[in-house]
Amino acid sequence: MMFEKILIANRGEIAVRIIRAAREMGIKTVIACSEADRNSLASRLADEVICIGPPESAKSYLNIPRIISAAEITGVDAIHPGYGFLAENSYFAEAVEASNIVFIGPPYRAIGLMGDKAFARSTMREHRVPILPGSDGGLTDQKTALKVAHDIGYPIMVKAVAGGGGRGMRIVHNDDTMRKAVEMASSEANVAFGNPEIYLEKYLIEPRHIEIQVIADKHGNTVYLGERECSIQRRHQKLLEEAPSIAIDEETRKRMGEAAVRACKAVGYYSAGTVEFLLDKDGNFYFMEMNTRIQVEHPVTEMITGIDLIKSQILVAMGEKLPFKQKDISIDGHAIECRINAEDPERGFAPSPGTIKGLILPGGLGVRVDTHIYQGYTVPPYYDSLVAKLICWGRDREEARIRTARALDEFVIEGIKTTIPFQKRVVVSDLFKSGDLSTSFIERLEKNEKSIGVDKSE
């Protein structure tokens, strides 16, 4: 079926991104916004705007009945959840389908299965996807956790079964900290996700975080679109991503991609998704989790493959077959994405909401900016701090890196503090130039900067 109108149950840059893709496809859009986002760029660009509640997410962007009602009132054919909020909520996806509205995403059963991290691990094991040693299922008691820890050996990562975004995670090195970690992670998981269960897995020292982008249709066709390097993180939150990874050769890319495809087929997956892996120093990779939605960092994959992932999601939701096969996928050049957040790096990345008093966006060949801000726009304090994504393409990694540094120099956002200066420090550092990346990159960078006296205020 051809969609005439879709509702976007999200905000910020991803809402703008979806509106643009839909418009190019001749599809009208409705933005379901909170009172705080009435003057957002998405509200200005959409064909229709419907307010779904006050600024608080729980009363608006997380309020399933209000979103379904908004969809019914505006007569849309489908709902796109973007990322975050309800994008990986299986109950929301089921409620959308039950209302005879198409959910632009995977089937709700697949969301539920892959959202249960312990179940996902056991499923991956059954389908020959490498996993780290760990607990067989969810647990909440310290006694069982200690037994598992003794079986697989420290260090160990404690994770929330229903977790995501780094919440409910602890690294443990001995029995004493294990007891505390289980109690704290379980409590945090219960508050954040309504599920106190945690699971354990072996913690790798300084691994790379590599994820495989997949897209699958409803006709059994599943394709992987290469990998993204997502190792540069702070407190398990990604800061900068690039594609492809210089640590991955063609053989490893093929093995990881085929493992990701098996993961999708194991749960009857369709739509865009990402299978995340940890890569150790010996080139061994292990399944970590699957994100059953579009990712923040999807543009770097688009830049090196030429495939519009949002349009692909919409086409799959319409019931169309993928217009390409695995043999058609090729990687052209290198792309780097910097997440620009309304945060002050000099104050521990404290949130910095406020009004944009001046704005200069970078441009030029190979430079893309995905953003929802404009001069005079007020960044509200209620939501995620992401205000823009700078994506730069080059014929190789060094050209992409140099172009990124140049674009960051041009990028001006006045009125609030942002992570632009921090991102510049990253991309011009010798450590980043070397490509010696791992999930401990930021700690190593700060140690290097301290040793040579880098001025972080620049």
What does this protein look like?
With 458 residues, the protein is α+β, with helices and mostly antiparallel strands. It is 35% helix and 25% strand. The chain contains 15 helices and 22 strands. The strands form six sheets. The chain has an eight-stranded antiparallel β-sheet, with helices on both faces. A five-stranded parallel β-sheet has the order 3-2-1-4-5, with helices on both faces. A three-stranded antiparallel β-sheet has the order 7-6-8, with helices on one face. Helix 4 runs antiparallel to helix 5, helix 7 crosses helix 8 and helix 12 packs antiparallel against helix 13. The longest helix is centred in the middle third of the chain and has 19 residues. The radius of gyration is 21 Å and the shape is globular.
Low-confidence segments: none
Q: Which fold name corresponds to the CATH topology of the largest domain?
A: D-amino Acid Aminotransferase, Chain A, domain 1
SS element count, helices: 15
Estimated share of beta-strand residues: 25-35%
**What do the pLDDT scores average to?**
94
CATH class of the largest domain: Alpha Beta
Which CATH architecture of the largest domain?
2-Layer Sandwich
In the residues, how many domains can be counted?
A: 3
Q: Roughly how much helix do the residues carry, as a percent range?
A: 25-40%
